[in-house]
Design a protein that fits this description.
The complex is a heterodimer of chains A (325) and B (274). With 325 residues, chain A is of the alpha/beta class. Chain A has helices at residues 18-34, 74-88, 101-112, 220-232, 241-245, 276-279, 311-323; strands at 3-8, 36-44, 60-65, 92-96, 115-126, 131-138, 143-150, 155-159, 176-179, 192-198, 209-213, 236-239, 266-270, 287-292, 305-308. Chain A has 2 domains: 3-188, HUPs (Rossmann fold, 3-Layer(aba) Sandwich), CATH 3.40.50.620; 209-324, Rossmann fold (3-Layer(aba) Sandwich). In chain A, the strands form 2 sheets. Chain A has a 9-stranded mixed beta sheet. The longest helix of chain A has 17 residues, at 18-34. The termini of chain A are far apart. By secondary structure, chain B is α/β, with parallel strands linked by helices. Chain B has helices at residues 37-52, 68-78, 96-110, 129-136, 192-201, 214-217, 245-252, and strands spanning 2-6, 9-11, 33-35, 57-64, 82-87, 114-118, 141-151, 156-163, 166-173, 176-180, 204-207, 225-230, 241-242, 272-273. In chain B, strands 9-8-7-10-6-1-4-5-11 form a 9-stranded mixed beta sheet, sandwiched between helices. In chain B, helix 2 packs across helix 5 (192-201) and helix 3 (96-110) packs across helix 4 (129-136). The longest helix of chain B has 16 residues, at 37-52. The chains are: A alpha/beta (325), B alpha/beta (274). The complex binds flavin-adenine dinucleotide (FAD). The site of flavin-adenine dinucleotide has 27 residues of chain A, from helix 5, helix 6 and helix 7.
Amino acid sequence: MKKSIWVVAHHQVTDIKPVTFELLNMADALARQIDATVNTLLMGPSVAALSSQLIGLCDNVYIFEDPMLEEYHYETYQQIFIKMAERYRPDILIVSSILRGTDCFPRLAAHFGAHYVAGCLDLSYQPEEELIAYHQAVYEGRAILEGAFRLDRMAVIMTRPHVFAPSMERKRKETKVSLLEISLSPIEFLTRRVSSIKNVAISLGEALVVVAGGRGMQGAGGFKLLWELARRLHGAVGATKAAVDAGWCEHRYQVGQTGSLISPEIYIACGISGSIHHLAGIQGAKTVIAINEDPNAPIFKRADYGIVGNVFEIIPELITEIDSL
Amino acid sequence: MRIIVCIKQVPDVEAEFHFKPDYPGIEVEKMSMIINPGDEVAIEGALRLKSIYPETEVILLSLGPPSARETLEYGLSLGADRAFLIVNDSYTFGQPFRTAHILAGAIRELGFDIILFGYRAVDDRLHFVGPAVAEFLELPHITGVTFMKVFKGINKCEAHQEVPKGINILECPYPAVFTVKRGLFAPRYPSMADRLAAKEKGIETFPLEKFWDEKTAKRYPVLAGMRFSIAETVRTERKVQWADAKKIAGILKKYKARTPMTESALDKGSGEEI
Ligand SMILES: Cc1cc2nc3c(=O)[nH]c(=O)nc-3n(C[C@H](O)[C@H](O)[C@H](O)COP(=O)(O)OP(=O)(O)OC[C@H]3O[C@@H](n4cnc5c(N)ncnc54)[C@H](O)[C@@H]3O)c2cc1C
């Protein structure tokens, strides 16, 4: 039987999120090597209309709508994926670590005793040995692991966002859209959300633009300026360890070897010297823009565009320019 | 109340890095070994709960080589009551099913109300073992917890879960599994006296065979191979193009938000309730 690769779509109210196209591109490349079908699972309280955005990008779109999906619960996901896997027997399930990937997919892999890959950077097929190979950053980004496994059981692959190019090229003549043939049993949730505190509109991992600050931002007040810039670009804010250690922002904003490893399209480094530890976190960044008053700062060796100057003059100027666009 | 905190001895990735291309990617003997940073936070969480419910017993559990005794001893010096080592021949990397299965076995043996893990291990970064143990023991789990409370009378836990865009406050009955992240629990440091007292407490051991055998191993997936390469820590040098604000604004044009995020969507520490 033909093998099958499944991808879980991410979406917002009216759009399929770009990360989905990354996952589909990854799935498509592998599907060609192992002769597999590419299937997208589109699930949510009301998602059927979004399926049109997936036409031509995969062989099948399976829609699953349920009001229970209004709110995330690993318990709902667990049940859907268990039933889906029992009904459709996917060989490979490709998901993104953003949103709640690391909350529900490890448990799912444990349930099935499935091959489990996290932080996946790429997938390929090695025909001589019939192995699926992948790369993953380990030891906080200091080394890269190349692992390989046999497709003797299901594989759950969790990828990092922005590492694979999204493709919107409609390579398939036909995409069949159907309903996922499973039915959910009522769930008595053990974990319940009582309330939420919303801090940011977009997360560091997901953002296409990241505006990051270092010691040169001189304080929490300086970081306010970064937020002002970021919000105009639908971006997120990042920081160096020096800025985090100084208490100007929380550790979850730290980028670098001991913080997040990110791959945004644009990385704007403000008052950051460009230490190796920090640069380790932005290896995947496509375009790096640096603002620093020291023309010899190492960050300029890694930057595509540089402005030599005081961040407290340049950033407001940049904001004015953007507002006037 | 019995809290079990699972901890791992890991290489200190911030110290000198001794790479090798074969498993496990490092020359373990040459690396300085420390407690996994997230696990230290988990111990702190357990000790905070103990300070509210003093009759609580905090038990540390580790699967590791004999050298992991040092890590357990460190945990005892912070204030944990007992420590158990499941003795393994060597340092383990990337064997998530084996680790989760063995820990689940030992946890069952010990008895528990609350089980804590670090959010992730800095070495293999799989985020796997905590949720997998929850699955094997059929318990609810909450991952990425930065703060938690226990309401003993009504058998309920409340946990702050860090999610990409903020914090969710969740509750669940216990027994339950939590993976803990650096947040409100800043780890404490032991005094010299605490260190000496920890040596007195001693470390109990479990033989590995009690929880693991060839037959069990067959149930779980194995990798056909692992190879390592050193990460290219610095991107290849680029030729910087000097620019001014106007030019940069032009590059950023396509990212300009049609409607900029409102101020209230920005991080202002306190946050907005939704
Ligand atoms: C094992 C290890 C792990 C580490 N992990 C990380 C990590 O994950 N992430 C990380 O970021 N760091 C990490 N570090 C720390 C790292 O080595 C650097 O110390 C840190 O990145 C420096 O931060 P910085 O660039 O903000 O500060 P600095 O190096 O002090 O640079 C500040 C820069 O701001 C410029 N500046 C000052 N004022 C202005 C102004 N008004 N206008 C414009 N420019 C100005 C200066 O010219 C300077 O270049 C790690 C260190 C170690 C040893």
